[in-house]
C-alpha cells in the first residue's frame, strides 16, 4: 500500500474560489493559485500527523511568468525537511529560461 507523507502536484488549475476542491482527507493542503491568469498552480499535501511551517518567505522569488512555488518545512522525528513544489511556466523566450535558472539558484542558496 502506498502511504505517502508528502505529495506535490503541479498544474492544479485551482483558483481562489475552488481551492477547497483540492483537499485530500488526512492531509494539510498548501497551494499557490494564480491571481491574474488561468491554469498553472502548485500544491503540497502534508500528512496530518506532521507539524509544518509554510515557507511564505520564499514567495518573493516567484513570478507567474517564470515559475510558481509552494514550500514548507516539515518536522519529522529525524529533523526538519524542506519540501518545495515548483511549476515552471512555459518559457516565452530564452531570457525567461535564464531568469528561471537564476531564481532557482537563489532559492537553493536560501
Query: What is the first-to-last residue Cα distance?
Result: 35 Å
Uncertain spans: none
The share of residues in helices is 10-25%
User: What value does the average pLDDT take?
Assistant: 84
Tell me, what's the shape?
globular
Main sheet: strand order: 1-3-2
- The protein's oligomeric status is single chain
Topology:
Elements: E1 6-10, E2 27-32, E3 42-47, E4 52-54, E5 67-76, E6 79-88, H1 94-108
What attributes does this structure have?
3-stranded antiparallel β-sheet; single chain; mainly beta
Describe the structure.
By secondary structure, this protein is mainly β. It is 14% helix and 36% strand. The radius of gyration is 15 Å and the shape is globular. The N and C termini lie far apart (35 Å). The model has no long low-confidence stretch (mean pLDDT 84).
What is this structure, in a nutshell?
The protein has one helix spanning 94-108, and strands at residues 6-10, 27-32, 42-47, 52-54, 67-76, 79-88. It is mostly beta strands.
